[in-house]
């Protein structure tokens, strides 16, 4: 420890040099924060791997229809909509747990709920009580998304000179990826040797152990968001009453959308009366899907534009600074800043171009998001690979390929530029869907490709037969393509957001990526049941044309804007 000036150290005395490189990493890893961050990453990744992936392998094995699996995958919307209740997590004190600290109280509550919910799944038979099973899964997904809110805040607030935000983020990702292997590959391997309820019971116990990490973690003091009050209370900002009306419209739209989805899920998962039939997912998505997207995306955008219009004409604005605030005003300000302010800034800055940006974001990940919930049923039940084979190919080998794709995306950004990489990210995943269509139809194209490049000989030398080689090649392509596309998307959204609203805008825009894909999973599940995997894979590949079109339109828009900026 350096001696302070108060101990009569000369002002020009040299301080011990800060450790660098590997030495800095060793110092950081020795701190309590770094160790806790690894555990928190694991605590975040484990429920996501179980609920969004492994759970579907269980459901497919016991004969649950793909349409039902698709609807059940809508619990993943909890992760997309989590910014809606983020203000409550930020401000609400939990009775009896507040003594643990601002963030730890929420984290340990979520971990306890997750452990109980995963255990609840273990003791519930989905073939006899799919409705109860779905409710428990939703509770688990909601708790997982809420835990992520608190963990993200903990990571940002606990960064310091010794454990930087970049290092904490890297440690978080390492823990998260490790949990993906445990909740994916290890869970599948265990399921080949014991029952699914036993697997989920073991995972519930593992989730419960994460509370030990939380109890050891440091916390940050509760603070008042003075800057938020100052920003919204400045002269020229909309008056609280006007903001309240605009916020009510946005919240009403979101509540209607969520209630509509929940009502259909309940109807879909409820027991069918004798002679009755399940409602059609395709019909629901066709009739209600556009309205849901409109209510969650375009109504807030219209409200944001109205807010800009009122401020530009000084209608309903504050004439002097507003210092009033309390618990209800604080929560309202947080929600307004999460739902209206980011879109208002985007709409004001991009004008009509915001429609192209939103179209880009809504469709970019559609091709691979729409079928991701059916990967395990496809591999295990349709193609009849063993759990061990799928665990290795998808969750171990696949994660390595994803990391390679992420690295490749970063390299291409530096070498060929932003939009060429983004365009590749839009074009490559649809080709992966065509590859899976061939895999569903017997893998003749994949076999020919492997033979031409002599990969069949390499596979044979490594002990992989023709069937395993097909699966590995399909997963290699898909995971590299989606890893590259994910990197391109993150970089693109990061370039679009305002520096003033970086975190809020990024959370809002990135959450919209999964909206259309998640809603489309119900339709995909019903289509898989009706038409088979091959035709549906080919149809979703064609949908990639929409994403490519939006990328090209956005490229043109940005190029023109940059050209105008140069002239000015």
Largest sheet: none
Structural class, by secondary structure, is: mainly alpha
Judging from the principal axes of the Cα atoms, what is the shape? globular
Distance between the termini: 54 Å
Order of helices and strands: HHHHHHHHHHHHHHHHHHHHHHHH
Number of strands: 0
Alpha plus pi helix count: 24
How helical, in percent, are the residues? over 70%
Strand content: under 5%
The low-pLDDT segments are 1-25
Radius of gyration: 25 Å
Average pLDDT taken over every residue? 83
Describe this structure in words.
It contains 24 helices and no strands. The chain is globular. The chain has helices spanning 21-29, 32-61, 66-72, 77-80, 86-91, 104-122, 130-157, 165-191, 196-216, 226-232, 240-269, 281-312, 327-339, 341-350, 353-363, 366-369, 375-382, 387-416, 418-440, 444-452, 455-461, 466-496, 502-531, 533-567. The chain is mostly helical. 76% of the residues lie in helices and 0% in strands.
The gist of it:
This protein is mainly α and 568 residues long. 76% of the residues lie in helices and 0% in strands.
What distinguishing features does this structure have?
mainly alpha; 0% strand; 76% helix; single chain; disordered N terminus; globular; 568 residues; 24 helices
């Amino acid at each position: 420890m350096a001696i302070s000036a108060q101990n009569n150290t000369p002002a020009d005395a040299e301080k011990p040099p800060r450790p660098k490189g590997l030495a800095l990493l060793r110092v950081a890893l020795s701190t309590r924060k770094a160790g806790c961050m690894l555990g928190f990453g694991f605590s975040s990744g484990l429920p996501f791997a179980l609920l969004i992936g492994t759970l579907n392998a269980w459901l497919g094995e016991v004969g649950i229809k793909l349409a039902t699996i698709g609807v059940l995958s809508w619990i993943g919307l909890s992760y997309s909509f989590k910014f809606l209740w983020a203000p409550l997590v930020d401000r609400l004190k939990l009775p009896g747990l507040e003594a643990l600290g601002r963030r730890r109280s929420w984290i340990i509550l979520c971990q306890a709920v997750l452990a109980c919910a995963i255990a609840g799944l273990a003791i519930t038979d989905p073939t006899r009580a799919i409705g109860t099973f779905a409710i428990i899964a939703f509770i688990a997904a909601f708790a997982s998304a809420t835990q992520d809110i608190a963990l993200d805040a903990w990571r940002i607030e606990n960064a310091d000179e010794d454990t930087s935000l970049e290092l904490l983020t890297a440690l978080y990702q390492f823990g998260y990826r490790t949990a993906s292997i445990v909740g994916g590959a290890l869970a599948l391997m265990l399921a080949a040797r014991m029952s699914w309820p036993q697997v989920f019971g073991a995972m519930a116990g593992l989730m419960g152990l994460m509370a030990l990490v939380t109890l050891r973690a440091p916390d940050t003091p509760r603070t008042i968001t003075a800057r938020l009050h100052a920003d919204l209370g400045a002269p020229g900002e909309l008056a609280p009453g006007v903001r309240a009306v605009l916020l009510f419209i946005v919240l009403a739209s979101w509540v209607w959308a969520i209630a509509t989805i929940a009502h259909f899920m309940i109807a879909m998962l409820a027991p069918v009366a004798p002679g009755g039939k399940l409602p059609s997912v395709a019909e629901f998505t066709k009739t209600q899907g556009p309205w849901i997207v409109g209510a969650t995306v375009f109504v807030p955008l219209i409200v944001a534009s109205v807010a800009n219009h009122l401020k530009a004409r000084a209608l309903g604005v504050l004439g002097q600074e507003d210092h009033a605030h309390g618990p209800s005003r604080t929560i309202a300000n947080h929600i307004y800043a999460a739902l209206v302010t980011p879109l208002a800034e985007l709409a004001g800055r991009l004008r009509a171009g915001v429609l192209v940006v939103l179209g880009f974001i809504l469709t970019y990940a559609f091709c691979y998001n729409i079928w991701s919930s059916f990967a395990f049923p496809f591999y295990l039940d349709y193609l009849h690979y063993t759990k061990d084979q799928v665990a290795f190919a998808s969750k171990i080998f696949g994660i390595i390929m994803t990391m390679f794709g992420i690295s490749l995306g970063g390299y291409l950004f530096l070498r060929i530029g932003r939009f060429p990489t983004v365009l590749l990210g839009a074009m490559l995943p649809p080709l992966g869907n065509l590859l899976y269509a061939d895999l569903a139809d017997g893998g003749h194209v994949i076999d020919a490709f492997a033979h031409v490049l002599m990969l069949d000989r390499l596979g044979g030398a490594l002990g992989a037969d023709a069937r395993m080689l097909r699966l590995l090649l399909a997963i290699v392509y898909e995971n590299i393509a989606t890893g590259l596309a994910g990197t391109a998307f993150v970089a693109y959204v990061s370039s679009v957001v305002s520096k003033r609203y970086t975190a809020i805008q990024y959370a809002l825009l990135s959450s919209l990526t999964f909206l259309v894909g998640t809603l489309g999973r119900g339709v995909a599940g019903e289509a898989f049941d009706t038409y088979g995997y091959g035709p549906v894979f080919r149809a979703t590949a064609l949908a990639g044309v929409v994403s490519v079109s939006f990328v090209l339109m956005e490229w043109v828009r940005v190029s023109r804007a940059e050209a105008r900026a140069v002239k000015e």
